Structure formats: C-alpha cells, structure tokens
C-alpha cells in the first residue's frame, strides 16, 4: 500500500542489541553479577575470624581480632595455669617450643613472664611483632621471659616460617590443639598475660601493645634487683 505522498513507507528500523563477542548486554550483566558474588564469597571464606564493630571496619593494626565470644577470663592475682596440652593418649603434656623443648611456667618461677597469644595471619599481631622482639631483647638480662603462643595455625612449619622470617629471638610455641588457648579463656588476638616472679597474673591486655606500654607492663613483673654489695670500709690507719 502506498503512502499518501506516493512513496512506499519504509519498514521500522531494527533495534540492535549491544553485544561483545557472542554475549549480548543481558548475558554480560548476568556474568558480571555471578563473578562478583563468587569473589565476595571467596573473601568471606578465606578471611581470618574477626569482628567488625557497629562503626564499621577498624584499624587492623590497633584493635584485636575477636576469635570467640568475650568471656570472663583470668583475673589479676590468680595463679597462672600451667602451659599444658593433651598428649596422644589424652594425658596432659607440656607445651613445647619450636625446637621441641618443654615450656613450663614452673621452670620460670623467679622471673617475669610475658605470654603473648597471637597468630601469623592476624594483622594487629603482625604490627606489634617488632615491639615484642625489641622489648624481649632489652629486658632479657633483667629476668624477662617472653613466650609467644601461636594459636589457630595449621602446622608448626607455618609458625616456624614466621619466626624465622622476622628473626624472633624469644620463645615461640605452637598451640595447635588449642588447649592452652582454652585454658586461658582467650577470645581476642593478640592477648597479653603478664605474670610476676611468683607465678601469679599481674595484668591482662586484650589487644596489641606499643613500645611504651609494653615496657611499663614489663617493669611491673620483673624480679627485684639483687642488692649491690656495700663497699667495705677502708682499713683504719694505725
């Protein structure tokens, strides 16, 4: 049928869909959504156990990771529990350092003991590592023993690799069974337990410490210095 002007009417233009390769826009959008959800899932699954407060993400170097529900832990003045784990037969056996030597609080009586519960994947633990290393070295001759107890690790080799990488000169042990972790009722990483020479808990800090606070807490648990010998009186002249 002719148009009133005598010209044949043109067919309506064909709307072409945006396409990249074999995919049109709708399929591309679907693929992007699926990939995004898969990436988010991987992040959630692989992220270390942590807690984010109502105010949003916190500075990972300044606040601890919550790895359990907060519970009432040890109190200052209590005798610190021995560092024991369950052996293959279920009997208690001493926690051992990375060289296989037993670590017993009973063997450390008379010295100040700083227990640091940590994990190699924990950002605030990583951030305070230089503080631990420096303070442990500075106070070793004054009777401080720092014991870093790694928790929630897969193998002892993972812990050893971290200790070697950062040249940790203090005692490091891997609590793979979580027995010491539970005995001390730890719920945040890092957690610091400062124990005086009598074996009693003097202070508990849930979170990382800086150099100044670490030095102050260590000073509280150091053994008293041996009194210096009084100078002998000069001989009397005849």
Structure commentary:
By secondary structure, this protein is α+β, with helices and mostly antiparallel strands. It folds into 2 domains: 20-48; 65-221, Glutaredoxin. The chain contains 5 helices and 12 strands. A 5-stranded mixed beta sheet has the order 9-8-7-11-12, covered by helices on one side. A 3-stranded antiparallel beta sheet has the order 4-5-6, with no helix packed on it. A hairpin with a 5-residue loop joins strand 4 and strand 5 (92-96). The longest helix has 22 residues, at 25-46. The chain starts with 18 loop residues before the first strand and ends in a 17-residue tail after the last helix. The model is unreliable at 1-8, 38-58 and 226-238 (pLDDT under 50).
Main β sheet profile: 5 strands, mixed
- Rg, Cα atoms, Å: 31 Å
Q: Please count the beta strands (DSSP E, at least 2 residues each).
A: 12
Task: Give the CATH class of the largest domain.
Answer: Alpha Beta
Tell me the fraction of residues in β-strands, as a range. 15-25%
> Can you count the helices?
5
Q: Can you give the helix content as a percent range?
A: 25-40%
* Overall number of structural domains: 2
Rounded mean pLDDT is 79
**Strands side by side in the biggest sheet:** 9-8-7-11-12
Shape: globular
Q: Could you name the CATH homologous superfamily of the largest domain?
A: Glutaredoxin
Cα(first) to Cα(last) distance is: 149 Å
List segments where confidence is low: pLDDT < 50 over at least 5 consecutive residues.
Answer: 1-8, 38-58, 226-238
At CATH level 2, the architecture of the largest domain is: 3-Layer(aba) Sandwich
């Amino acid at each position: 049928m002719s148009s009133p002007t005598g010209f044949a009417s043109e067919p309506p233009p064909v709307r072409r869909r945006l396409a990249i390769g074999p995919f049109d826009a709708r399929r591309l959008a679907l693929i992007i959504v699926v990939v995004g959800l898969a990436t988010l899932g991987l992040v959630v699954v692989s992220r270390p156990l942590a807690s984010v407060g109502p105010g949003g993400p916190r500075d990972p170097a300044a606040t601890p990771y919550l790895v359990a529900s907060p519970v009432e832990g040890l109190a200052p003045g209590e005798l610190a529990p021995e560092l024991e784990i369950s052996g293959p037969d279920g009997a208690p056996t001493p926690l051992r350092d990375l060289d296989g030597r037993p670590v017993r609080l009973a063997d450390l009586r008379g010295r100040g003991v700083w227990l640091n519960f940590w994990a190699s994947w924990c950002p605030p633990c990583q951030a305070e590592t230089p503080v631990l290393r420096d303070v442990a070295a500075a106070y070793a001759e004054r009777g401080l023993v720092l014991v870093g107890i790694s928790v929630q690790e897969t193998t002892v080799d993972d812990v050893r690799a971290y200790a070697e990488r950062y040249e940790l000169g203090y005692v490091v042990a891997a609590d793979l069974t979580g027995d010491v972790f539970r005995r001390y009722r730890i719920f945040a990483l890092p957690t610091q337990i400062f124990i005086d020479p009598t074996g009693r808990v003097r202070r508990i800090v849930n979170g990382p410490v800086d150099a100044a606070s670490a030095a102050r807490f260590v000073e509280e648990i150091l053994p008293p210095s041996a009194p210096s010998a009084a100078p002998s009186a000069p001989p009397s002249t005849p």
